[in-house]
Every structure is written in structure tokens, then in C-alpha cells.
Write a structure and sequence with these properties.
The protein has 216 residues and is mainly β. The protein has a single domain, classed as Fumarylacetoacetase-like, C-terminal domain (Fumarylacetoacetate hydrolase, domain 2), CATH 3.90.850.10. Helix content is 12%, strand content 31%. The protein has four helices and 15 strands. The strands form four sheets. The protein has a six-stranded mixed sheet.
Length: 216
């Protein structure tokens, strides 16, 4: 898909999502909140474009519509400072980080997040056009009805800080996409539903959920 190389996601990066899970962070097996970003990958089998179907796996009744901002890297970024981090950003995309509902926390939910078609990615909005990524409204729709709204102003780690912390230990290459996190109160959708993610200044991506094995 386009020049995408690797898609890296971050859990619990919206304040509301963090606050909802914080009590459990102090119980077994962790006993304290994570000190670093909790990351996972969305591999190539998950990537789709707007208009492509999202496949609802057999045995799964519904999925979460994970409205999030994707940060597209424009140049190799290794050990970048927070102050210079945005210089390595080519632009931004609206992304639907689709997930099978689950109860596990603080562990990468690979089985729930890495199913085929579980990462529709929108068209690139150049960084110069978007400007500050720290105050972008994010909305999730199901069948045209607004189901959730939030803003990147509520990130625990801003885009520059997240880039600085991640590139401290791994190089992000041109074409990589960093998902900044999914807000709390994630809406759910079923087979036949039309879902959309919309971000002010970035764009909108829309897909229909199709049951596995159904004729498109």
C-alpha cells in the first residue's frame, strides 16, 4: 500500500483511556503504570484503503472502531529530540485501528489487532498543510452517526514526545506510520455497518464491515 513500511501503534495514550485503566495497572502482574510507551504493530496484512471492506472474522460479533491519527515519517528518525521531532514528519493520515473487543491490558493484543483488513489508512495530508498536530479533532462514525469524538490535545504523550521516546531505541524510516493512540469510549460495529474516521485538517476514511466468507 503506497510507500507504507511499518505501522506502529501506541496503547493508552489518551488521558481518558489511561484513567480508565489506571486502577488495574497497580494490580498483578504489573503493580505499577508503564513508564514507557506501550507499543504494538499493525502488519501489512491489516492495511487497507478507503472503500476496501473490513472483514469481520468468523465467530466475532463486533469490532471496535479505533479512530486515530497516523504520523507518516518522511526521513530516517533515530534518537531525535522532542524539539526537532516534527522535522521528520512528512504528513498525517486518518486511520481506523480496528480491534476485536478484549479485556487484556498492558499487553500487545496481537490476536485482536492484527487480523486481515484491520488497519484502513487514509490519504496523506502534508505536514505543512496540517500544522500543529496537537489540537486535531478526531471523530468516529457508524452508519453516518457520530459515535465518538476527541482531540489530540488529550494525548498523554504529544506527537513530538512520542517520536522522541520511540526513536530513542528504534529508527523510524521513511514511510513508517506511527498511530498516536485510540481514545476512550471506543464505538463498536457489526457486519453490514459503514464506519468512518474523520480528523480535522487531515481527512476521512470510510469502509464497510463485511462478514468473513460473505460475497462482496
Amino acid at each position: 500500500m503506497r510507500t507504507t513500511r511499518t505501522v506502529v501503534g501506541c496503547l493508552l495514550n489518551f488521558r481518558g483511556a489511561w484513567e480508565a485503566m489506571e486502577p488495574a495497572m497497580h494490580r498483578e502482574p504489573h503493580f505499577k503504570p508503564p513508564a514507557h510507551p506501550v507499543l504494538y504493530l499493525k502488519p501489512a496484512n491489516t492495511w487497507r484503503r478507503g472503500g476496501d471492506p473490513i472483514v469481520l472474522p468468523s465467530g466475532v460479533d463486533e469490532v471496535e472502531v479505533g479512530a486515530t491519527l497516523g504520523v507518516v515519517i518522511g526521513a530516517p528518525a533515530s534518537r531525535v529530540s522532542e524539539a526537532e521531532a516534527l522535522q521528520f514528519v512528512a504528513g498525517y493520515v486518518a486511520v481506523n485501528d480496528v480491534t476485536v473487543p478484549h479485556t487484556a491490558i498492558l499487553r500487545p493484543p496481537i490476536k485482536q489487532k492484527c487480523r486481515d483488513s484491520f488497519c484502513p489508512i487514509g490519504e496523506l495530508a502534508p505536514a505543512a498543510r496540517v500544522g500543529d498536530p496537537g489540537a486535531l479533532a478526531i471523530r468516529a462514525y457508524v452508519n453516518g452517526e457520530l459515535k465518538a469524538s476527541n482531540s489530540t490535545a488529550n494525548l498523554m504523550r504529544s506527537v513530538p514526545r512520542l517520536l522522541a521516546e520511540i526513536t530513542e531505541f528504534m529508527t523510524l524510516e521513511e514511510g513508517d506510520v506511527l498511530l498516536v493512540g485510540v481514545p476512550e469510549n471506543v464505538p463498536r460495529a457489526r457486519a453490514g455497518d459503514r464506519v468512518a474516521v474523520e480528523i480535522d485538517g487531515v481527512g476521512r476514511i470510510e469502509n464497510v464491515i463485511r462478514a468473513e466468507g460473505a460475497v462482496s
